[in-house]
Amino acid sequence: MTENQEHHYTEDVQEHLHEVEHLLEKHALVETVAHQQEMPRDERHILVDKLLQKQHLAELGQKLATLHPADIAYILEALPIEQRLLVWEQVEADRDGEILIEVSDAVRESLIATMSGEELLEATEQLDTDEIADLAPDLPHDVIFEVFKSLSIEEREQLRSAMSYPEDAVGALMDFDMVTIREDVSLEVVTRYLRRFDELPDHTDLLFIVDREDNFKGVLPLKRLLVHEPETEVAALMITETVILHPDDKADHAAQTFERYDLVSAPVVDAKGMLVGRLTVNSVMDFIRAESESDVLNLAGLREEEDIFASVWKSAQNRWLWLALNLCTAFFASRVIGMFEGTIAKFVALATLMPIVAGIAGNSANQTTTIIIRALALGQISSTNARRLVGKELAIGALNGLVWGGIAGLFAFLLYENLLIGVIMTSAMLLNLLLGALVGLLIPLTMQKLGRDPAIGSSVLLTAITDSGGFFIFLGLATLFLTN
Amino acid sequence: MTENQEHHYTEDVQEHLHEVEHLLEKHALVETVAHQQEMPRDERHILVDKLLQKQHLAELGQKLATLHPADIAYILEALPIEQRLLVWEQVEADRDGEILIEVSDAVRESLIATMSGEELLEATEQLDTDEIADLAPDLPHDVIFEVFKSLSIEEREQLRSAMSYPEDAVGALMDFDMVTIREDVSLEVVTRYLRRFDELPDHTDLLFIVDREDNFKGVLPLKRLLVHEPETEVAALMITETVILHPDDKADHAAQTFERYDLVSAPVVDAKGMLVGRLTVNSVMDFIRAESESDVLNLAGLREEEDIFASVWKSAQNRWLWLALNLCTAFFASRVIGMFEGTIAKFVALATLMPIVAGIAGNSANQTTTIIIRALALGQISSTNARRLVGKELAIGALNGLVWGGIAGLFAFLLYENLLIGVIMTSAMLLNLLLGALVGLLIPLTMQKLGRDPAIGSSVLLTAITDSGGFFIFLGLATLFLTN
Asked: Is residue B307 domain-resident?
């Protein structure tokens, strides 16, 4: 449970990073100086150095104690691995948990790797069950077992439930910090009930109304509670027609709901109508950020977000799958060119021109796919308008083919003073742009139909087709019309 | 001002879209049947058809009246232009404003184009000043002038202020729906003051504490107000060390602050310490979504988000700049190959292999750039660690060069049974991957230094260099070692 009030908010977290870096430099300097003195050093010197270092580390610890856990997480992420671990050691043990929750997956792994089972157990003690569930995939099994044993029956149930949903389901994002009330009481009673809390949970904009069996009845927004007279009954003010999420709902569907209706929190209700948790806007925002990052990473062929200070070996592995895939499609394209070696031997100009045909269609097809993937994500594409879109994209492809194909044809003609090469160039560009428009549309639509995420892998497949297709069309046309 | 309670929330907005599509089909059917009847039709028939159509439209209007403005916006975006305008006509005039705020820029343009100055003026009447400011860039000048005249002095000041900030500044995203209180009163007084509101503004999780001159003093979270006794003074509970934004702050900096500290709202305070507005999490979330979309669009070379039903001409224009740029770099790469036509004429195998050298390095460089752009956005790169990163990326480039270059060299050797071609292939891959790693790092870093957004344009430049560079290195090595 993060109690923001205890720690400093900061306008510019980079300032703190610089301060920490400065302290680390001072710390490292002592060691360097010690190593540089070639003479054998007496114990007293060594002792002084040690004291000095200790002092720097103590200063660092004091600095960290004033920072918000999210800011410490930021600093840890921005530091190379040795310095990161040095800073991590200076963090008070009872704050480890809240910081582990904040850091990125890759960095979390590097921190957990240095912690003993006991330290990990202690770290989880300060966390809510939904936070423990987030951490669980990175924890050793025996630690999870110990954590489980330390929980109350209710908490065990919550943890089990939170861990049972896939990462992209509402159930995995929800928390259990709900304030529930009954409908047959007055606002006066509610207000007195709330005063018994030390503090309301973060992001409490709604009170959830349930019956004795925890069946969800409706919500009472705080902003309603505050403007009505104390005598009013909850039942008179509660809203029953409200957004209700289910733990099995897709998280991106829930995210769109939050964005559409500008929600701060929403009840999560199971199939039997029981209130099982709530989803809050901060979890939704984290989810959106993570999704959009993984979209960008996927486009560049990175499997997951990378700790920029990870080892060469680890980073390379994150990038290999994509390079291997691209090498395969490049080999294929190379063999397509190989089919026309005879033609190229006669007209070397073809070798200089063919990358243009392949490249532009690839770019254009990528534009189409990007637009379609976005429209699919927003649910804007139905079977009625899909056919319309095919027509439109083909029309744009044809227009681009005539304009850019025309320019490329002119370029080829002027360069090689051969009208036929110019015409072949323009025709090949036109055909390949049409091919690109078609596959740029059909690949994401087909992936969606097959239940796969169209954002993953569409572009490799696409480029493979426009490359090989471009070479085939251009060299094929040339073989037909130039060599006969 | 959106009063969510009045309209239906909906679990699946696509259901509503289908219903609307169904009504539109029925409506269109009447017309088609009328046209298909070849006989001259008497007036009575025409009248019946008209009545039928009217009835369908009335049904449509009733359906729309129950929907949340965001859902109507969604439906408008998912409909082709003629049907979109038909639906738009059925929306009650007094809801036009709140819907215009919700639709995407491209679709908003298409709707506003059909509205008269008077209708636009009426639409803005239901909006808050910060919402009018959002709409203003799309409104004709005379309408803005009329709107301005219709506002109170305070609202004029707010509108002027909101419109004076660039789109990516906090000032452009903030709203003015703040509840302000004094510090020298008791919670009891605050509670009575709140009860005088009909409803508190959306996203009110904080009350803002100001003095008589509107100088910002601190905040009182509702969750504190609710748990303390009525006699307590505001001064005893208010938080003075809190996140304070400035209207000139960059919006993405504010967004990171919201994410880091899990905020729902934050005060916006000017240079003189006066409270001028507040930023809420829903605006931040919209901003994040828009940013991440424009990142993905920029990567694919689309200038802005596209209305999928925009005309071919309009869509093509959105895509041309990028294609023109790519054509230029493709021409350049083509001329690089042209320098080595003599060598290719002797060894046609080179033409089949050269795209592999160019392509893989382009992919690998793109991976590097993506990681660096992300790290730059998070402020994780300092002058201290930049040098370290150069070393790391070069090491990954070398590793990839040996592994994938080795495989490609083997492929070339087995195919053409020429050891030298294999060795040249591997060497060229290695060198081009190193070149890619270097430019993949330096391009975004340089752009950042020049104050430009590294996410825009990095990839064209990158691919241009790895393409031309790859051709030059591979064909250059071949010319040196094969033809002598």
From this structure: no
